[in-house]
Design goal:
Length: 133
């Protein structure tokens, strides 16, 4: 782990105060709203450092944008992500790892890795959208 700077601590703090994946732009806006003069480029740099250190999880969104989340678990896990509010929940799914290993082996691939995210609508957003949702 690298030495933490004030800006790095601010970015990490913004992630720790959220229960969902956040883009660099969202984190930057949150920090600016709190009076931090940190630049967007600095936010991107610290997010990349945190991702490289394994301190945050990275999620590729449908439009190609990248979002980040500080996870509670250091163990391999997956996420359920709300399409409406962005809230995410960590879930263990050991069968996915075994399946990925098997598929890779059958195709002659070595050293497989995988990333699985499940998207849906969380209970709070379903309640907010009314009956029948």
């Amino acid at each position: 782990m690298r030495k933490r700077t004030r800006q790095g601590a601010a970015v990490l703090g913004a992630l720790e105060s959220s229960d969902g994946f956040r883009t660099a732009q969202q984190i930057h806006a949150d920090l600016r709203a709190d009076g931090d003069g940190i630049g967007l480029t600095t936010v991107y740099r610290h997010l990349q450092l945190l991702a490289d250190d394994g301190a945050v999880d990275v999620l590729q969104l449908d439009g190609g944008e990248v979002a980040y989340r500080r996870c509670a678990s250091d163990r391999h896990h997956h996420h359920l992500v709300c399409r409406s509010c962005g809230r995410s929940v960590e879930v263990a799914c050991p069968d996915v790892g075994a399946w990925a290993q098997s598929v890779a082996k059958d195709a002659g691939f070595a050293d497989p890795s995988h990333r699985v995210e499940v998207f849906g609508v969380c209970p709070a957003c379903r309640r907010a959208s009314g009956p029948g949702q």
